[in-house]
Design a protein that fits this description.
The chain is 64% helix and 0% strand. The chain has 203 residues and is mainly alpha-helical. It has one domain. The N and C termini lie far apart (42 Å).
């Protein structure tokens, strides 16, 4: 099943977890530590209070210095700007309609971030053409072996993680959160290494 189909069929918890997982993997671009989103993950677990989501979200934004409206001029790096927008756009209310919009936007943003940061990616696709190309990737499913034609390694891995998180939540509900967090943590470590190498290269 394609990523687009999985998002269309996911329930409220699966959608919120999907968006949160995309954001979690991009935390290195926000300057946050590995635990900064844990309160939001805990809120999605069985027994978590959906009404507390908005307050927890405000606390996370305050820690990372991200307002609900991001000023594009304040962030020069495109990948970091996309990550800040993901956090800024997170819904204050945990409801399926709002979570679906956020999950869909986070999916595209996270794939675009990985495309921008992938040192193996070529310059064939301009930045303006990326969203359309990535939507095609999301609708086409996950490459079984290696990577799909035209898909950079980092993007292919991110696509697999996004699909994996949604499948875990679809199959196990709240019981799949722990494994979903593990999948996200793995991706965050990869991206943190990429961001670190890029910083050294610029220095």
């Amino acid at each position: 099943m394609s990523l687009v189909e999985l998002i269309a069929q996911a329930d409220e918890r699966g959608l919120a977890a999907s968006g949160l997982a995309c954001l979690d993997r991009c935390v290195p671009l926000l300057g946050g530590d590995d635990e900064v989103l844990r309160p939001l993950w805990a809120n999605l677990a069985a027994g978590g209070d959906p009404a507390a989501w908005g307050e927890l979200l405000d606390q996370v934004r305050a820690k990372l210095g991200v307002a609900e409206a991001v000023d594009d001029e304040d962030v020069e790096d495109e990948a970091a700007l996309l990550a800040r927008r993901m956090l800024a756009a997170a819904p204050a209310v945990r409801s399926a309609p709002e979570a679906r919009i956020w999950a869909d936007a986070c999916s595209v943003a996270a794939l675009q971030i990985h495309r921008l940061l992938d040192p193996a990616a070529d310059d064939a696709s301009s930045a303006g053409a990326l969203p359309q190309a990535l939507n095609s990737v999301r609708a086409g499913g996950v490459p079984v072996e290696g990577r799909a034609q035209g898909m950079s390694p980092l993007v292919a891995a991110e696509l697999r993680r996004q699909v994996g998180v949604l499948e875990l939540l679809a199959q196990h509900g709240a019981g799949g959160l722990r494994r979903a967090l593990e999948v996200s943590t793995e991706g965050r470590r990869v991206l943190r290494a990429v961001v670190s190498r890029r910083a050294r290269g610029r220095g």
